[in-house]
Design brief:
By secondary structure, the chain is an alpha+beta fold. The chain folds into 2 domains: 98 residues, no CATH class; 48 residues. It is 37% helix and 26% strand.
């Protein structure tokens, strides 16, 4: 596999190390030994998920372009910015869901808004200083047409 390494600075100054490579059926076993130093202790889990993602693509004899993006550990400011963004999303969605109910009853609107906010809170990640964000993507062109699949991981720091 020929690895292409780059760096990307995303929203809120989060810096990602990006690795792109093409996997062919004859070298798919190389995913098990891919060097992912930035992933630290979670590198074995990332390798397993890469292998699973490749298998899910059903590439058969077609080349599969894979991308791994691993963030540098988050700073306190970056983690707070990401959490604030999550709060804005949570408030906007819960308000939009509850607003039509408010026409009927303000008490029901409040209950629905709180329920929706709690439901969304359980699904959103809460970021801490030193957390690492990992994104994986696979693309195959040909066969039944272009296919793309991705997943993300959140590696929590050891902080309480």
């Amino acid at each position: 596999m020929n690895l292409e390494r780059t760096q990307y600075i995303g929203h809120y100054g989060v810096t990602f190390s990006v690795i792109r490579f093409t996997v062919r059926p004859d070298n798919k076993q190389a995913l098990a030994s891919l060097c992912l130093l930035d992933a630290k202790a979670s590198a074995p889990e990332v390798r397993l998920r890469l292998q699973s993602l490749y298998e899910r693509m059903l590439a058969q004899d077609l080349p599969c372009l894979m991308t791994v993006a691993i963030s540098k550990p988050l700073t306190r400011k970056q983690a707070d910015s990401l959490n604030n963004r999550n709060n804005v999303v949570k408030e906007a969605i819960s308000g939009a869901v509850a607003a039509p109910i408010g026409i009927i009853s303000s008490k029901a609107e409040s209950l629905i808004e709180n329920f929706t906010r709690d439901l969304i809170s359980r699904q959103l990640r809460n970021f801490q200083r030193a957390d690492i964000i990992i994104g994986l993507e696979a693309r195959v062109s040909g066969g039944i047409g272009p296919q793309r699949s991705s997943l993300s991981m959140h590696v929590y720091s050891d902080e309480p």
